[in-house]
Amino acid sequence: MLLKESNGAQSSTQDSSPIILVVEPDDETRPLLKHNLKHQGYRVIIALDV
């Protein structure tokens, strides 16, 4: 399993936004979840099955 932060950047201790780990196998649902969660102010980490 591969974890990837959606913004591609390293985590910062100064960023106080809550983090959500998304484990969603559906390729069509995952981007929608990511978009909606980011819009709500969450930092999103996607778990990809490799």
From TrEMBL:
Lineage: superkingdom: Bacteria
InterPro entries: Sig_transdc_resp-reg_receiver
Comp. bias (Polar residues): 7-17
All residue ranges annotated as the Response regulatory domain in the record: 19-50
Region span, Disordered: 1-20
Protein name (database record): Response regulatory domain-containing protein
